[in-house]
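## Example pair
The file below holds two records. Each record gives the amino-acid sequence first, followed by its structure token line.
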Amino acid sequence: MKHSAAEIINEYGPFPSAEQVHGLTYDGKHVWFASGDRLNAIDPADGKAFDSIEVPAHAGTAFDGEHLFQIADSRIQKIDPKTGRVASTIPAPGNGGDSGLAWAEGSLWVGEYRERRIHQIDPETGAVLRTIQSNRFVTGVTWVDGELWHATWEDEKSDLRHIDPDTGETLERLDMPAGTGISGLESDGHDRFFCGGGNSGKVRVVRRPNHAQANRQ
């Protein structure tokens, strides 16, 4: 297993009217993060606020190219970002114990925090298609270039993990600095991970190391 320190390359916040950062996602231009009673959009170039949607937003966030998906208690809301309207809801597999959320290849991927599991679910019904077991609390999930990554935050320690989607084996681990937890995770599809900072109220940007190395070869 590869193991190294996470390289934080940028940091935004805290933000006015957002005491915490829960889940977050990236729509190709803006980072959307959940802060309890709303979704907030910021420009990742400078961290400036762009937009917000008043909607219950307690945990993971995802984007499928058209709609936002947002965990609120025991349900997942499908939201039109242009109008802020909730188009539909499905049950969350952890029944309120859910954390991270990601969209990939027609499915939603949901982290179940204390059960240390990641579920692939049907985005129309919420039916669980398969489950991957981790050995740490799951606080964020994302896919990039066919790689499944998840964030952990347990015993005051936090890291990002690239895992085998078939076995759950950890293939690579990036340790966050002491006192720096991750409450949500999303890739920009290239060389950056966006990380929610929980009660710090911050969004941090971590470099994806393998991608940077590949580009130099």
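Second record, same layout:
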Amino acid sequence: MMARFTSLRARRALSLYGLLSAPTVFLAIFFLGPLGIMVVYTFLTPGLYGGVDWAFSHLNYGRILGWADTRYDQFDPVYISIFLRSIRLAATTVLACLVICYPFAFWVARQPERWRNFFIFLITLPFFISLIVRLFAWVLILRPTGFLNQALLGLGLVDAPLDIIFTDIAVVIGMTYVFIPFMFLPLYSSIEKLDGSLIEASQDLGASPLQTFLRVILPMTLPGIVGGSIIVFIPSLGNFIVPSLLGGARVVMIGNLIEQQFLSARNWPFGSALGMMVMAAVLVLLMIYVRVLSREDRRAEARQAREEDER
């Protein structure tokens, strides 16, 4: 009996290793390999006509963080300013997506099943159209002679066209539009599993709607909020397509700066250092996400243990 159990466990382990080996090798080659090259490049000097010279240099980080002070490499606070602006715009995008998607996900979760599937299909419908085409549509809407300004002027709400295109507002509008599905789906997944009996129990015990929301609904949907926020924040932080089309030269984000270093300035080591700064910010967020999930899991286990003891 013991030998059969050991054999079964060995077969399961072998099957697991077989299934995981292909994606592991793929990630090792096409993710960890390029990532390792970028890390090495951050400590090299730029070549005269692009590429790198294999000479150690820490000044690529010094130009961003403040200790570079040589003839060719100088600290410039504009890089920190662009990085902080990217964080601000990405955080604003997350907040806008959350404000739009949270009540909408509740409304969709209360609909009959066939209507729920229909609305989820509508949320994912923009993926069937090219991102560039959708963003150029926003250019037509937001420009001074665009549909939005024509409508506001026609209704008499403004006396002159609003200056929306090529501003932070236009970039936030564009990124919110692009990343709404990434926020909605994790939120909907959490809200759909919400236990309605707990909400009814809270109301029966005399809790106000606000107390029910803060103590029952919000904690139970927190994993979806945190997951959706991270999934939206990460691509927003490094995005360069939306700022290029809707922000122009007036709104430069860290993604645009990295693109310019690789394609225009041909300073690969400095572009790699900027990329590492973005990855460090993303890593910190992922660690926070894992910590929040672990804490929620521990609370759920403790609550389940108390309920079992009370029985």
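Notes on the second record: The mean pLDDT is 87. The longest strand covers residues 52-56.
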